[in-house]
Amino acid sequence: MEIAVNRYEQGNFFLAIEPRRCKGCGVCVQSCPQGVLALNGEGKVEAKEIARCVFCGICEQRCPDFAISVYKERIIQPSLV
Amino acid sequence: MEFQEYLRVERLPHVWCPGCGHGMITHALACALAELELDPRQTAVIGGIGCSGRAAFLFDMDAMHTTHGCAVVFATGLKLVRPTLTVVLTLGDGDAIGIGGNHFIHACRRNVDLTAIIYNNSIYGQTGGQVAPTTPVHRKSTTSPYGNLEHPFDIARLAIAAGATYVARTTSFDFPDMIKYIKRGIAHKGFSVIEVLTHCPTYYGRLNDLRDPYEMLHTMKEQTVPIEEWAQLTEEEREGKIVIGELHRQERPEFVESYYELIAQMRDGH
Q1: Which ipTM did the prediction report?
Q2: Mind listing the pLDDT tens digit for each residue in B193-238?
Q3: Optimal mutation site among A18, A28, A62, interface B, most CBs of chain B within 10 A
Q4: A65 to chain B, minimum CA–CA distance in Å?
Q5: What CATH number has the domain spanning B3-269?
Q6: What are the residue boundaries of the structural domains of chain A, listed by start?
Q7: Model pTM score
Q8: How many CB atoms lie within 10 A of CB B257?
Q9: Closest partner residue to A80 among B2, B16, B24, by Cβ?
């Protein structure tokens, strides 16, 4: 089964959000220093302002549900994203 | 290996409540295992009962879900039989010092080569928010609706007094620190205790007017003082604050090693 992953790209960096894992706690939204993230109507996180993202990785560290991953040209197997 | 390879990602989303700090600690533990490049076939994660016990079977390696308070006992047995294994414990505050308090202090005393990560959320979360031995005084829980009268245990100090040879305390807010201390704890030969202060928005937060998980994380950050700054504080400034950092480190003969040495000696004697 294909797992839905939303990818938000900016050059070589990208943010991967897996909506199935997100519980909508909002910790990442409040932690983001650039105001990139927001909760959508379904209560799932979305990168609304990806252009402002500096790929600091705080959202990945704070997310208790492993829903956000920040990739800085890291080589990773596609199945794990 | 990436940290995801140490986890059973197919079991996600996990069972913890939205905003629960246990996910952050489990994430840090997976990152620490990945940074140490441990072989999953030579590593075991043991969990007890409670929300924290759920962490054990998120790991793609040998794991045990043991009876309440007895995770340390099972881990000691496992380590004695298979001394080459790296054994990590995911204990809750109730598991470590509530129900399993006696087992915990004796594991500290024996100095068994285990790494205990204590998910301290100040309440019994899984069973409905009852008062725990770590609930701060005057704080509410479902069994202390007018405020708790008992003074809480200081897990790190208890572990030091009982004889643990590596003791560190941090919060789920400090992600790099969690990884650093877990890595040092695993590398240390002897009983390592890493107490991670975390938050329970569902019970502790709801009953104590801290509903928002991020607000709880921030409150924890404000309540803690790094050990480097702790020495400069006066008694009044220390009131209500918690010291975090690497609190204790000591070298002492390790139990499993001593046990096998004794066996070798006895064999030579005959």
Answers
A1: 0.86
A2: 999 999 999 999 999 988 899 999 998 999 999 999 998 988 888 8
A3: A62
A4: 6
A5: 3.40.50.970
A6: 6-80
A7: 0.93
A8: 15
A9: B2
